Amino acid sequence: MISLQNLVKKFGSFAAVDGVSLDVTPGEIHGFLGPNGAGKTTTMRMIAGLLKPDSGRILVNGHDLATAPEAAKASLGFIPDRPFIYEKLTAGEFLRFHAGLYGLDGDVSDRVREMLEVFELGRWEDELVESFSHGMKQRLVMSAAFLHKPQAIVVDEPMVGLDPRGARLIKQIFRRMSERGVAILMSTHTLEVAQEMSDRISIIVKGRIIARGTVDELRRMAGSQDDRLTPVFLKLTGGGGLQEIDEV
């Protein structure tokens, strides 16, 4: 559902993303790990069409983002690490506005209510977003990303600002969506989340993928007997990024 082929993005002489190739298959939750500055967010913004790659290809649900951008974006839901919401809208108005951006035809009221209920926001449909907590805003953005029934989701730091109940809800929703065939590429600094949720994991350092596989496969690559992902990550990355990664 998501295919990256030799993706490159430079800022001046600095290669933020340097030849990244990656595939996320239907129904897969693919963890995307790396220390700060490794190229994760830049890669995700290119997939979402917010940044243009210098070279390489991005395919979403078989659509080339460069030659068929509308079809590619219609197949994708994007959840950024720092979402922007129009806070003078109600939750329902925000989702209906979002539906309009994706060209959803007809009355979308049932779909709006469905997504608000899924993300436990139904009772706040007519409340202004400015009154929401950070976690509620995060869940609203996620409900918007799933509103148009995308085949693929790109999510950057999904658990930031969520309380334990909210985090558990998001984990359950992501797993449910993956069981329905949605491909999810998930960047996170919380290795516990990556270990619990990811079917496969790619580790990026200095703009390049240095390792990819299941947790067990990464453990074998690192020659580690530890059940936790943290020591495996640190060994594969040479110990870099310790301050940026949450311990299990």
What does this entry look like structurally?
- This protein has 248 residues and is α/β, with parallel strands linked by helices.
- It has helices spanning 40-47, 69-74, 91-101, 109-118, 134-146, 164-179, 191-197, 215-222, 229-236, and strands spanning 2-11, 14-24, 29-33, 55-60, 63-64, 76-79, 152-156, 183-187, 200-205, 208-213.
- Strand 1 (2-11) and strand 2 (14-24) form a beta hairpin.
- Helix 8 crosses helix 9 (229-236).
- The protein starts with a strand and ends in a 12-residue tail after the last helix.
- The model is unreliable at 240-248 (pLDDT under 50).
Q: Could you provide a short overview of the structure?
A:
With 248 residues, this protein is of the alpha/beta class.
State the separation between the terminal residues, measured CA to CA: 30 Å
Radius of gyration: 18 Å
Number of helices: 9
Low-confidence stretches: 240-248
Structural class: alpha/beta
Q: Helices and strands, in N-to-C order?
A: EEEHEEHEHHHEHEHEEHH
What portion of residues belong to β-strands?
Answer: 15-25%
Helical residues, percent: 25-40%
Q: Looking at the structure, what is the overall shape?
A: globular
Strand order within the widest beta sheet:
6-7-8-3-9-10
The largest sheet is: 6 strands, mixed
